[in-house]
Amino acid sequence: MKIVALFFPKASIGTYLVAMAVAIALPIFAFVTLLLLQLEDNQRSTLRRETAQDALALSRIIDRQLQDMATTLRLLSSSPELENGNLASFHERTETALRDNTLFVIAVDRTGQQLLNTRRAFGTPLGKTANIPALEAVMASGRIEASDVFRGRTSGEWVYNVTLPRKNDPVAALIITQNATDLRKLVTTEGLAPGWSAAVIDQSGHVVAATGPANLEPGTPFDPRILPAFTASRGVFQDETILPHMLLGYARIPGWSWKTVIWGPIAQASILSTWRFLIIGGVALVLVAVLGAYAVARQVRTTIRDIADMANRMGEGHIVSPVETSVIEANQVAIALSNASFDRSQTEDRLRFVMHELVHRTKNLLTLAQAMMRQLAKQSDSVETFRAAVADRLEGLVRSIELLTSEQWGGVSLRRVVDIHLHAFPQSREQIDISGEDFVLKPDAVQNLGLALHELATNSVKYGALSVPQGRVRFEWRDVSEKDKPDALLRFTWEERGGPPVTEPSRSGFGTTVIKAHAASAFRGTVEIDFRPEGLLWVLTAQRATLERE
């Protein structure tokens, strides 16, 4: 402690700010002087290294694009429609999936004849793919490859392909094609110095996409005098005869036959002039910094004292008014302290209210869970059956509670409640049609409607329309009276069709109790259940006021 006190004696903030300004400035200027002596030697090697790194960074961007296209091809190759030879369905599904992208899919046979092309409607007569050599090379290698840039027959644009060979017939290969102008969006010179260009080069040495002042168009041959120098995985090329006062960096895209290049002028600053200006100006700046530090210290000292006084009075339990200072951050602290002192009593009241509400919600949930288990216990013939039934119902209740918790028990949109309960059965998502105008449900309505939906979906998956692939469910809600009236009514309809023949059960279980008696009681409405042979029909008519949050 004595050593610390020796170097850091008690002093005012002004003294320490001035000392800090001097202590920071002097070592910085000494260090900068040494750096300037070495900067000229290091500048060129640094520029070469950064150029190679920038080319490598661009190659990684293009690699991610090609890898994404390859992954898409692998997923499409294993699609059921393609395996079953249903090219029309495969075309529709693929076109829908890639609608928001600039990618198109082509399926060809072993001769290169196009079987489908998502650039055109299915069934449109198509010729052979324009790049037969690339297709033959892929079929011979047996692996995914990117083609050279070429003029597409269907699009009429410069395009490139990523091709996946298949051993199946009739589709011998799947191709993802993209216009070269769309790939140009990924070839950016952002972060490079002004006047620099960037390009992607294919295996034959032609430009796939480029940007920058060089303004190279797709399909343009890159300078053949430079290409032989690209022998390493990455590096730089400099030749005053070919590229006067310029530097070029290149990188191979790993796993592909393409390369990325960036090139531009070399900017050389006058290090000596900068050094002289730094030394002369630095001395003046140190003096200005010392004077400025002293002036700032006086202002900061006054501000700190005012804030400390506010904090002391707040600690004594007073509501304090914010002080006005010339420091913006200090004013923000003062306002925060004032608000904190004012909000403290409100926070205490809010905590008491939250605890009361938590007890109320907990009692309701425990009562509901107790009634559920009591009813299930009467109908279960074994402990395992009872355990499974309770776990299944509690899982549905948990989804509703998670939704309410995420919204701080302030209500949840009807659409979210429907989605989270029906999408709990992912194998049936495409079999359920949902429609209705969305609105916000009350917390109690979220739980009660969630229980009913969970029971309807569980029963349908086990015995109804969702138990077979061809089954369909329509769930909709609509107003059956003017919704602005106090006694406005809503009608929810769950209609199944296409499933196994339905017969009315001989006895009512817990599920029937939830979707009928509990739903009718919870929403002060009526429930109609019709066990039609073609599928279950459940209709809930309830007052909108029992569901919608005001």
UniProtKB/TrEMBL annotation:
Signal peptide bounds: none
Keywords: ATP-binding, Kinase, Membrane, Nucleotide-binding, Phosphoprotein, Transferase, Transmembrane, Transmembrane helix
Protein name: histidine kinase
Signal transduction histidine kinase HWE region domain segment(s): 357-438
Coiled-coil ranges (or none): none
Reactions this protein catalyses: ATP + protein L-histidine = ADP + protein N-phospho-L-histidine
A GO term, aspect molecular function: protein histidine kinase activity
E.C. number: 2.7.13.3
Organism field: Rhizobium sophorae
Annotated transmembrane regions: 16-39, 277-297
InterPro entries: HATPase_C_sf (IPR036890), Sig_transdc_His_kinase_HWE (IPR011102)
Top-level class of the enzyme under EC nomenclature: transferase
Domain of life: Bacteria
